[in-house]
Amino acid sequence: MSRRMILAAVAAVSMSVTGAALAQAHAGHAAPNAAITAALADPARPAADRERDPNRKPAEMLAFAGVGLGSKVADFIPGGGYFTRIFAKAVGPTGKVYAIISPPPANAPNPPAIRAVAADPAYGNIQVVEGDFQSFTVPEPVDVVWTSQNYHDLHQRRRNLEVAQVNKAIFNALKPGGVFIVLDHAAKAGTPVDPDDALHRIDPAAVRREVEAAGFKFEGESTVLRNAGDDHSKNVFDPAVRGKTDQFVYKFRKPR
């Protein structure tokens, strides 16, 4: 091979590697598809949810996750259903949304809020799945498992969970090639996991280590919820930072 051909080959490889790196760096800036745009305009969404959109940036989040018409999504610990409703409309009638919750205590005064969402005829493709987070199963393999501002809670002492087993159950719920999205409040780098959950934060590096240990491959990060003005010292419910915390959004993929 001539020197010119060698230099050309090296340049081509360099451009390919650089392009891949740039693609990963900007993975969080994919344009929302029409289904996502329509889901956010859903008139059945509560006004309180719409008011949270500027801070939560759901269009960018669903685009990063790759959610679209026909997707099967597991919303892990869905809370009041903010994202669950959006998923339901974005995946359309051929898609499905499984809301994964743990069984409520026997003396709970009210049923989990997500049950009312699933019972709403406007969201007929939502199914609530109750189960132990360490061993839950879904009726079919899904394209996306999503958890928002909840991963840190898995380490709470009172939950008595083996987080490695939770991540393995999530791995098993996905189709080969499916993705696990973790969105959470960032703790200061190097901060140990706190079983007392004083700040409701977690070091992103700790999440990556734990999730990769379950067999996932780290694919990239969306930075649209990052906030350099958050010094990571306050509880996320502190009025000074509530709704404005520094948040990381990681995408992990189950190998095909």
Folded structure, characterized:
It contains eight helices and seven strands; from the N terminus they run H-H-H-H-E-H-E-H-E-E-H-E-H-E-E. With 256 residues, the chain is an alpha/beta fold. The longest helix has 23 residues. The radius of gyration is 20 Å and the shape is globular.
Percent of residues in helices comes to 25-40%
Biggest sheet details = 7 strands, mixed
**Strand residues, percent:** 15-25%
On the 0 to 100 scale, the average pLDDT is 90
Gap between N and C termini: 36 Å
**Overall shape:** globular
Structural class: alpha/beta
From N to C, what is the helix and strand string? HHHHEHEHEEHEHEE
Query: Radius of gyration from the CA trace?
Result: 20 Å
Low-confidence stretches: 5-28
Please give the number of β-strands: 7
> Which strand order does the major sheet show?
3-2-1-4-5-7-6
Give a short synopsis of this structure.
The chain has eight helices and seven strands; from the N terminus they run ααααβαβαββαβαββ.
Helices and strands in order, then pairings?
Layout: H1 3-25, H2 34-40, H3 47-56, H4 58-65, E1 72-76, H5 82-91, E2 96-101, H6 113-119, E3 126-130, E4 142-148, H7 163-173, E5 174-185, H8 204-213, E6 217-222, E7 247-253
Parallel strand pairs: 1-2, 1-4, 2-3, 4-5
Antiparallel strand pairs: 5-7, 6-7
For this entry, give a set of tags:
34% helix; 256 residues; alpha/beta; 19% strand; 7-stranded mixed β-sheet
